[in-house]
Design a protein that fits this description.
Blueprint: E1 4-7, H1 9-15, H2 25-37, E2 41-44, H3 46-57, H4 62-80, E3 86-88, H5 94-109, H6 114-129, E4 135-138, E5 148-149
Parallel strand pairs: 1-2, 1-4, 2-3
Antiparallel strand pairs: 4-5
Helix pairs in contact: 1-2, 1-3, 3-4, 3-6, 5-6
Length: 152
C-alpha cells in the first residue's frame, strides 16, 4: 500500500521557498520527489496551511512577502483543484475541533501548540482509517518527529 504522508508547516515553508524558513529547501525538494515517485498520498493538514500563511505574513521584506504569498496561494489553489502532488485534508468538523480543544490544556502544559496537536490528531485518524498503509508526518521539527507508523 502507498504511504499516507501529512506535510508539516516546516516542510511546506521550504517547498514554497519562504525567506528565512527555507534553509533545507534542496533536501526537501529531493525528498518530495522521492515521495512522489513512490506513489505516496501527500496531504496538507489545515493547521499547516494556516501556519504557513501566518509565517509568510511575517516575512520582513515586502516584495519577498508578496511573492511568497502568491506562491502559497497558487499551491493551495492547485491542491484544491487536484492539480498538485498533495491535497489538503478536509476542513475539520466541529466534533474534531472539540476533541482538539479537550486535549489542548494537557498538550499546552507540554509546550505543544494547537496546530501541532491537530496534526497529531490527523495522524491518529489516518492510522485508524488506513491500517494497511504507512502513515507519517513529514516534518523538520522535533515536536512532530517520530510520528511514523508502518502499515500492517
Amino acid at each position: 500500500m502507498s504511504a499516507i504522508v501529512l506535510i508539516d508547516t516546516s516542510v511546506l515553508l521550504n517547498v514554497l521557498d519562504v525567506s528565512g524558513r527555507n534553509a533545507q529547501r534542496q533536501a526537501v525538494l529531493v525528498e518530495l520527489e522521492q515521495w512522489i515517485e513512490m506513489g505516496a498520498h501527500l496531504f496538507i493538514p489545515m493547521a499547516a496551511i494556516i501556519e504557513t500563511g501566518n509565517h509568510i505574513a511575517h516575512v520582513a521584506d515586502g516584495r519577498e512577502r508578496r511573492a511568497a504569498a502568491l506562491r502559497f496561494t497558487e499551491a493551495v489553489e492547485a491542491a484544491l483543484a487536484n492539480q498538485a502532488p498533495w491535497k489538503p485534508i478536509n476542513f475539520p468538523s466541529a466534533e474534531s475541533v472539540l476533541g482538539w480543544l479537550s486535549r489542548f490544556p494537557e498538550a499546552a502544559t507540554r509546550g505543544v501548540g494547537l496546530g501541532d496537536l491537530s496534526i497529531q490528531q490527523e495522524f491518529e485518524t489516518c492510522c485508524r482509517r488506513y491500517p494497511m498503509s504507512r502513515v507519517c508526518v513529514w516534518t523538520l521539527d522535533d515536536d512532530l518527529a517520530g510520528l511514523d507508523r508502518p502499515g500492517r
